[in-house]
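S.,

Sequence below, as promised.
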Amino acid sequence: MNKKTLALTVEQYTEIIETMRAGFAGCRPNIRIATALVIEANLGIRISDIVGLTLNSIVKDGDRYRLDIVEQKTGKQRTFTVPAVIYNYIKIYALENGIKPHEVIFPITERAVQKQLKLVVDYLGMVGIGTHSFRKFYATRIYNDSGHDIALVQQLLQHSSPVTTQAYIGIQSKQLEQAIEQHTCLI
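The prediction came back faster than expected:
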């Protein structure tokens, strides 16, 4: 678990992706890496698994799409639904870039993504942001959107315990702070 990186806010996510797509003085636009990070933020899979994806990795299963991967970090098999809008986003990117279904969609290294992201976040003056921030962004959004269902997030991230997931998205400290604030009773 990468405790050094923070979950992104929606504003940070948007600013990073837009800046990466547009480029800035001394840094050319990088659509490939921006797209890889968008996929991480929307599927919650690690960047190490994204750089190995092919269109053939996403399989049509009835009226839905599913992704079957063996996670690079854990060696665990992971099967989950890919929303059609995300599949279409990836497919359009592949078509626009002449990537065939059996070819790696993002022929880059994890390290290249990290270096490019560091250039952008340094330029934007952000701290505590790394590639894992996009996975934490996904987890935090799912947690908040699901009415704080920690078991759901745990299952999506394939964590072994809810305690791991709580620490991962930093909700334990937030809940403690809220409890302390709500308990205050000055006379």
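The beta strands are 58-61, 64-70, 77-82.

Coffee later?
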